[in-house]
């Protein structure tokens, strides 16, 4: 009987790790992927290492359509030669269901039947440890194929899983950089007025407290944003300054509106309507700045703040001012996709340090603080 190798891909792990390398956050929507090239490179790496031809790639993901059905992109992946879709489903809260159990069952059953002599597992999930050991008990070699971080270490791999496998290979930076890119426009390509450090009008919070007429007048004349609380140690409001009219918006036509807001010089609704902001930006964030974790104290304030900042910056790349308004209206509830990415990013940064409930809550507080700093571009 001819010998083969197989590749089992936990897509959630692969894309979260690749997105973290490219954008600094595991948020999947922050990147676009050249899937055919990425899969071809994973296959090439497995065949080269094992010296065996590929049997197939098992592609484990959640079906993006109701009932666990594939979307257009997943259907295109399933049409690639020797690629088998193995889809779970998404719960109403956006959690992935049925994917880990499919990977574990396939490892155990295919190992028992010796379908392949070597399996290359693209995952870091601790829950797969026992399935790996079951496949090994039937003579199958299981090698971990992990995405490398910017320090050249395997990203997000459980220590238990790493101990159980027969070997570890890294998906190198050249593969990720050739197949995965951020959806955000690089800051060096933005017009001067749209760069993160340039002045820009902020989006007002969804529930702005009432202000006196004199305060409204002062705000319209321009107020410097308050210092960030991570630097000053003082709490910050959801947004440090209200929306101000852009310099390129022509003056509003005379209006019969005699409301107190107009008397104070606030911009009219027509002025807001003429704004052409279509994107969002979080000022002053570099997603590639590495923040070291103290090996003795574990997670630090800088790590927590950095995780929240990177996630908000990545979310801004694919969001609109209307979505920002909706996000703020839902506060303090964080959408499941974003909350999950926050916790995954923090766990990967914590490097096996315990992350308590108080740290998680502080992470969410920092998320809202940075949401308050988001500007329209």
Furnish the topology, listing elements before pairings.
Blueprint: E1 5-10, H1 11-23, E2 31-33, H2 35-50, E3 54-62, H3 72-78, E4 83-90, E5 96-97, H4 99-112, E6 118-122, H5 129-136, E7 141-147, H6 159-164, E8 167-171, H7 173-179, E9 180-182, H8 213-220, H9 229-232, H10 260-263, H11 269-274, E10 280-281, H12 301-316, H13 321-329, H14 336-350, H15 357-371, E11 375-376
Parallel strand pairs: 1-3, 1-6, 3-4, 6-7, 7-8
Antiparallel strand pairs: 2-9, 4-5, 10-11
Helix pairs in contact: 2-7, 4-5, 12-14, 12-15, 14-15
Tell me the total number of β-strands. 11
Sequence of secondary-structure elements: EHEHEHEEHEHEHEHEHHHHEHHHHE
Radius of gyration (Å): 24 Å
Please identify the oligomeric state.
single chain
Q: CATH topology of the largest domain, what is it called?
A: Rossmann fold
The level of helicity is 25-40%
First-to-last CA distance:
61 Å
Largest sheet: 7 strands, mixed
- Total number of helical segments? 15
Rounded mean pLDDT score: 77
* Domains, number: 2
CATH class group of the largest domain: Alpha Beta
- Biggest sheet: strand arrangement: 5-4-3-1-6-7-8
CATH hierarchy: architecture of the largest domain: 3-Layer(aba) Sandwich
Alpha-beta content class: alpha/beta
What are the low-pLDDT stretches, counting only 5+ consecutive residues below 50? 193-256, 259-277, 287-293
Categorize the overall geometry: globular
Can you tell me about this structure?
This protein is α/β, with parallel strands linked by helices. The protein has 2 domains: 5-182, 5'-nuclease (Rossmann fold, 3-Layer(aba) Sandwich), CATH 3.40.50.1010; 189-246 and 275-376, no CATH class. Helices cover 39% and strands 14% of the residues. It has helices at 11-23, 35-50, 72-78, 99-112, 129-136, 159-164, 173-179, 213-220, 229-232, 260-263, 269-274, 301-316, 321-329, 336-350, 357-371; strands spanning 5-10, 31-33, 54-62, 83-90, 96-97, 118-122, 141-147, 167-171, 180-182, 280-281, 375-376. The strands form 3 sheets. Strands 5-4-3-1-6-7-8 form a 7-stranded mixed beta sheet, sandwiched between helices. Strands 2-9 form a two-stranded antiparallel sheet. A two-stranded antiparallel sheet has the order 10-11. The relative contact order is 0.13. Residues 193-256, 259-277 and 287-293 have low confidence and may be disordered.
């Amino acid at each position: 009987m001819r010998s083969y190798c197989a590749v089992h891909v936990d897509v959630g792990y692969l894309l979260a790790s690749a997105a973290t390398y490219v954008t600094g956050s595991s948020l999947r929507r922050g990147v676009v992927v050249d899937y055919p090239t990425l899969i071809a490179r994973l296959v090439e790496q497995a065949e080269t290492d094992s010296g065996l031809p590929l049997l197939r790639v098992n592609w484990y993901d959640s079906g993006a359509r109701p009932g666990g059905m594939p979307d257009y992109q997943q259907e295109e992946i399933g049409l690639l030669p020797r690629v088998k879709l193995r889809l779970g489903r998404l719960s109403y809260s956006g959690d992935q269901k049925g994917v880990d159990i499919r990977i574990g069952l396939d490892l155990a059953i295919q190992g028992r039947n010796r379908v392949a002599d070597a399996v290359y597992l693209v995952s870091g999930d601790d829950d797969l440890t026992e399935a790996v050991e079951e496949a090994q008990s039937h003579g199958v070699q299981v090698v971990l194929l992990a995405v490398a971080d910017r320090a050249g270490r395997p990203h997000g791999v459980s220590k238990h899983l790493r101990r159980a496998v027969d070997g570890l290979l890294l998906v190198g930076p050249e593969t990720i950089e050739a197949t995965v890119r951020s959806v955000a426009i690089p800051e060096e390509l933005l017009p001067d007025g749209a760069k993160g450090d340039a002045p820009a009008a902020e989006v007002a919070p969804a529930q702005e407290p009432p202000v006196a007429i004199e305060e409204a007048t002062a705000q319209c004349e321009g107020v410097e944003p308050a210092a960030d609380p991570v630097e000053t140690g003082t709490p910050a409001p959801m947004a440090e300054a209200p929306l101000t009219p852009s310099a390129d918006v022509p003056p509003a036509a005379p209006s019969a509106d005699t409301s107190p807001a107009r008397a104070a010089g606030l911009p009219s609704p027509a002025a807001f309507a003429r704004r052409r902001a279509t994107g969002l930006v979080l000022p002053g964030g570099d997603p590639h700045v590495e923040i070291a974790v103290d090996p003795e104290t574990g997670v630090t304030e800088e790590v927590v703040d950095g995780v929240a900042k990177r996630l908000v910056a990545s979310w801004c790349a694919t969001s609109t001012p209307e979505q920002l308004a909706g996000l703020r209206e839902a506060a303090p509830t964080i959408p499941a996709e974003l909350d999950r990415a926050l916790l995954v990013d923090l766990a990967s940064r914590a490097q096996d340090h315990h992350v308590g409930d108080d740290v998680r809550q502080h992470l969410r507080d920092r998320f809202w603080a940075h949401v308050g700093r988001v500007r329209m571009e």
